[in-house]
């Protein structure tokens, strides 16, 4: 039982520490942190693509493996060389998706009999936010990442408080008892 308690404490401590570090990084340096994450993903993609290419060279089976490996290498290089472009593209694609949904929702709201005004307002807000995301991707990205950072910090502090107050145990943890017949 003591081993389970120690494992839970270590798990809680690492989770709180990781959440605090990532939360602070996103709060203080949202764009730089996301650039770093994109570059790390790029390195991982590059390594994966190279492994795929080497595997093909060692055992040339299937043209798809070499084509897939080349595509992954190219994407990895783009992620490493142009993290800002990757973030901008993701933001713009999300903005376009939201814009399409907002316009579709607006059209649907026009034919509604009940709650038409609310549905139209929600769709207009979606359209405005989508346009903001498309036009000013980095500012919106920065605000969004700061909010994620704040959420991670609040969650970590809550976990820390609950971990201290509950001594690191959950309510669902089994209780060891001995049964005695009367």
How many beta strands in the DSSP annotation? Answer: 0
**Overall helicity:** over 70%
What is the terminal-to-terminal distance? 27 Å
Output mean pLDDT.
85
Approximate strand percentage:
under 5%
| Largest sheet entry | none
Number of helices: 6
Q: Low-confidence parts lasting 5 or more residues at pLDDT below 50?
A: none
Structural class category: mainly alpha
Shape category: extended
Total domain units: 1
Global Rg = 25 Å
The helix/strand series, from N terminus to C terminus, equals HHHHHH
Summarize the structure in words:
- This protein has 182 residues and is an all-alpha fold.
- The chain has one domain (2-165).
- Helix content is 84%, strand content 0%.
- The protein is built from six helices and no strands.
- The protein has helices spanning 2-28, 30-58, 63-81, 83-110, 116-135, 137-165.
- Helix 1 (2-28) crosses helix 2 (30-58), helix 4 packs antiparallel against helix 5 (116-135) and helix 5 packs across helix 6 (137-165).
- It is extended.
- The mean pLDDT is 85.
Write a brief caption for the model.
Helices cover 84% and strands 0% of the residues. The chain contains six helices and no strands.
Write the layout of secondary structure elements.
Blueprint: H1 2-28, H2 30-58, H3 63-81, H4 83-110, H5 116-135, H6 137-165
Index terms:
182 residues, mainly alpha, extended, transmembrane
């Amino acid at each position: 039982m003591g081993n389970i308690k120690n494992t839970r404490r270590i798990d809680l401590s690492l989770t709180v520490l990781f959440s605090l570090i990532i939360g602070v990084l996103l709060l203080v340096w949202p764009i730089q942190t996301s650039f770093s994450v994109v570059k790390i993903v790029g390195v991982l993609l590059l390594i994966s693509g190279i492994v795929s290419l080497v595997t093909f060279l060692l055992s040339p089976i299937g043209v798809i493996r070499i084509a897939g490996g080349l595509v992954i290498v190219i994407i990895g290089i783009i992620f490493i060389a142009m993290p800002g472009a990757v973030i901008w593209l993701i933001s713009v694609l999300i903005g376009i998706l939201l814009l399409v949904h907002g316009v579709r929702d607006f059209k649907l709201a026009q034919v509604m009999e009940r709650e038409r005004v609310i549905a139209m307002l929600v769709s207009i807000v979606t359209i405005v936010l989508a346009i903001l995301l498309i036009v000013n991707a980095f500012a919106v990205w920065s605000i969004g990442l700061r909010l994620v950072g704040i959420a991670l910090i609040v969650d970590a502090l809550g976990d820390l408080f609950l971990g201290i107050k509950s001594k690191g145990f959950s309510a669902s943890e089994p209780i060891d008892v001995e049964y005695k017949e009367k």
